[in-house]
Write a structure and sequence with these properties.
electron transport; quinol-cytochrome-c reductase activity; mitochondrion inner membrane; Cytochrome Bc1 Complex, Chain C; 208 residues; 9 helices; respiratory chain; mitochondrion; 74% helix
Length: 208
């Protein structure tokens, strides 16, 4: 599922870049810019649906990836596991900010509820919430900040993913037997590359 997550990240980044060309990060025109993408931009409906459904597919693959890691005991490789946890937090933050961008009722109240959870933090909670909002209420500054961070985070995720892979190659993937042996290994190609290609094909067909 790691390779599928990589494909998801590439799809999300490419479709996101195309959407960003037409999106307007302003509370008065954000929703209408989404409508414009759907109705007027050539294949805009397809790009937007790929981006929205791709986010759901991303989380399906993430939870399966985590489940596999827990089942095979991959958490014993602490560096790889901890970086994976950091990646999960970044992906969740990116998805939440993306949810806010259409600026419908669900977006506004979603942003209100989730950001207000931070106010429960002792001493700094209220100040932190106001800093995230960019004022004393959710307004244009909040939407602009969320759009900027939503645009930046995927590139940060890509960088952290490289570190995740670097640590993975140091230790190797875990297996059902829980053994770490160099004597009984198979080459990546064709055994895994064909499986990855088939998985990618199924995922793309599901998204389309």
């Amino acid at each position: 599922f790691g390779s599928l997550l990589g494909l998801c990240l590439i799809i999300q980044t490419i479709t996101g870049l195309f959407l960003a060309m037409h999106y307007t990060a302003d509370i008065m025109s954000a929703f209408s810019s989404i409508t414009h993408i759907h109705r007027d931009v050539q294949h805009g409906w397809l790009i937007r649906n790929l981006h929205a459904n791709g986010a759901s597919m991303f989380f399906i693959c993430i939870y399966l990836h985590i489940g596999r890691g827990l089942y095979y005991g991959s958490y014993i490789y602490t560096e790889t596991w901890n970086i994976g946890v950091i990646l999960l937090l970044f992906v969740m933050a990116t998805a939440f900010m993306g949810y806010v961008l259409p600026w419908g009722q669900m977006s506004f109240w979603g942003a209100t509820v989730i950001t207000n959870l931070l106010s429960a933090m002792p001493y700094v909670g209220s100040t932190l919430v106001e800093w995230i909002w960019g004022g004393f209420a959710i307004d244009n500054a909040t939407l602009t900040r969320f759009f900027t961070l939503h645009f930046m985070f995927p590139f940060i995720i890509m960088g952290i993913s490289m570190i995740h892979l670097l640590f993975l190659h140091e230790t190797g993937s875990n297996n059902p037997a829980g053994l770490n042996s160099n004597s009984d290994k198979i080459p990546f190609h064709p055994y895994y590359s064909y499986k990855d290609f088939l998985g990618a094909l199924i995922m793309l067909l599901t998204l389309l």
